[in-house]
Design brief:
Elements: H1 2-6, E1 14-18, H2 22-33, E2 37-41, H3 45-53, E3 57-61, E4 65-69, E5 72-74, E6 83-88, H4 92-104, E7 106-114, H5 121-128, E8 133-140, E9 143-147, E10 152-155, E11 161-165, H6 173-185, E12 189-193, H7 195-219, H8 228-247, H9 256-268, H10 278-284, H11 291-304, H12 310-319
Parallel strand pairs: 1-2, 1-6, 2-5, 3-10, 6-7, 7-8, 11-12
Antiparallel strand pairs: 3-4, 8-11, 9-10
Helix pairs in contact: 7-8
Amino acid sequence: MQNKLLNIFKPKLKYLIIGAGSTGATFSCFLHSAKKNVTLISKYENVIKNAKEKKGIKLISNVKGEKRYKINIQTEQTYKGKADVIILCIRTPDIFSSIPFIKKVSHNNTIVTSIANGFGISYFLKKELPNLHILDSNFVGKCRWYNRNDVEYLQQREYVEFNFADKYNSIDPKILNKIKTDFQEAGMNTTLMSEKQFTQIAFERLITRSPFEATCIYYNICAHDFYGESLKTFKDLCQELLILANAMKIDIRNDFLDEYYANFEKYKERDDANVYSSILQDIKIGQNSEIDFLFFIVLELAKKYDLNLPTYSKIAEKFKKYQSFYL
């Protein structure tokens, strides 16, 4: 019944972007540039105030050039509509607090997806929003703030990429293709993947984030300091993820780690490699981090597949107080 109802969507889908940080703002500007119906939600009144005063959000983009976009920006309190597609451009700790708002602004066939860092976030969303349609997705754009007072953002990569998959096979293919077309028209390299394809890419990204973050927090170091024992720990964590991938029947190519290690050695020598990991920075200032879906998710999956991952377990014991676990 739900699939049939999806066919009654109007030609123009109503997109709701939750999170007016660099990624959410970039998403909104790209969709707005193609005349899509998009609203951006910000929890910061000053962002909305500054955007009104400056007559829009300014995006300095390697794809779109430099332009200011008159995006419709609202708070959760002022938004009164119902969205067809909700894209969560917020950190994983903030997703949980957004669930009541998502329920409020959804109809029976609303599609929800998150592009937050981590693995398995769609499982959490499906658990919390069982009556909605959940997509797996990821986004690549290299976005960051440029000038907060003037509401200016940078999009620095030479392309913007959005990949998504219908994990639960619940969405009418016409709607999936409509989303794909909308994003392509907005200038994003967009691929509608099979669940198997998406899971492989998502797991590869987990390999390039989770061991690095875990090593940083365990030794209180940044990438410049990965030598000796810490470098061995980092590589042991990577190998344990390969064991998990094998148990999950995820096909990681044979040279993946060799290529990643080579790129990491180059990265260690860069000037920006002296920055601490995002999780470690959050821990240092007492802020909720993305540790659940970048680290503890590995141990939850290991438990499911009856695996012993000793290096992950050792680090988890030290940082278990930071686990808020939503799964």
